[in-house]
Amino acid sequence: MSTGALTPTTYINHHLSFFAKPLGEGTFWTLHVDSLLTAVLLGVVGFGFLWWVVRGATSGVPSKLQAFVELSVEFVDDQAKGIFHGDRHKFVAPLALTVFVWVLLMNAMDFLPVDIMAWVYEHVLGLSNWHSVPTADINTTFALSISVWLLMIFFSIKVKGLGGWIHELFCTPFGSNPLLWIFNLMFNLVEYVSKPLSHSLRLYGNMYAGEIIFLLLGMWAATGLVGTIFGALLGAGWAIFHILIVVLQAFIFMMLTIVYISMAHESH
Q1: Rounded to whole angstroms, what are the CA distances from 249 to 36, 42, 194?
Q2: Is residue 57's pLDDT more than 90?
Q3: How far apart, in whole angstroms, are the C-alpha atoms of residue 235 and residue 242?
Q4: For a tag on the chain, would you pick the N or C end, based on fewer CB atoms within 10 A?
Q5: Residue 235: inside a domain
Q6: Which domain holds residue 73?
Q7: Which residue in 194, 202, 262, 267 is the catalytic one?
Q8: pTM reported for the whole predicted model
Q9: DSSP designation for 260
Q10: Is 256 inside any structural domain?
């Protein structure tokens, strides 16, 4: 895509547009095909790689790939062990590993050269407005956070029983006096609503902002020789710094997942 005749606004809008398919009348029920297919493909590739390494694991001296996977699994398991005090190996640790690897891979799509990938999508695959970073799509991050939120409610009911969960909603944190029920419920509803919001918006905001900075630097690099030099230098510096953001946001999303599931197992 030529950038010479474009303004920063049109350039950014072009690259941040989604390959959307309406599912019905209006625009509310719209499927972002690019985010969905990219996320599924990354999940298959990422966990297929883990399965392939584990399948060939040996008890002797591990290969470099086996050592890398073992260190990754041990790292995630240690995080789960420090927060969740039940039998984490049944569900929590595998869930944490799934979330960390999947979100990390989706975040890492931000390192692909924007204009090169746009050219490949449009001229090789025949796809226009294909968005490569699923976690820069609010629909993806909300889907992930709502899935964790539903798991949190499921385990709350499973551990405490439906009656115990309802009792907790109406009787904590201020007490079981009937006059306080409405205040307890309002307080707990705010907490329940804020969890998926903060969980999803933190990841989305960081990845979306990172994409915009990459696009602005790319636009600057297309303005001439000076812009190309400074754009390339700043782009390289931002890419190095963005590695920290990509990994850190995946780590934070994983840790909050463990915390929320752990809180569901606690009684107040």
Answers
A1: 20, 17, 18
A2: no
A3: 10
A4: C
A5: yes
A6: 29-126+137-264
A7: 202
A8: 0.87
A9: H
A10: yes
Mean pLDDT of 259-268: 84
- Binned at pLDDT 50, 70 and 90, residue 4 comes out as very low
Q: Helix/strand/coil (H, E, C) string of 3-59?
A: CCCCCHHHHHHHHCCCCEEECCCCCCCEEEHHHHHHHHHHHHHHHHHHHHHHHCCCC
What does the block give as tokens for 93?
A: 């640790």
**Two structure tokens written together for 118:** 């746009």
- Asked whether residue 4 is domain-assigned, the answer is no
Active-site residue flag, 206? yes
Q: Which of 13, 176, 177, 198 is catalytic?
A: 198
d(CA 114, CA 109): 10
Kindly state the tokens that stand for 223: 């303005």
Check if 13 is active-site.
no
**Assigned token pair, 210:** 């990172």
pLDDT tens digits, one per residue of 68-99: 899 999 999 999 988 888 777 789 999 999 99
Q: Where are the beta strands (DSSP E) in the chain?
A: 20-22, 30-32
Identified catalytic residue from 107, 184, 200, 206: 206
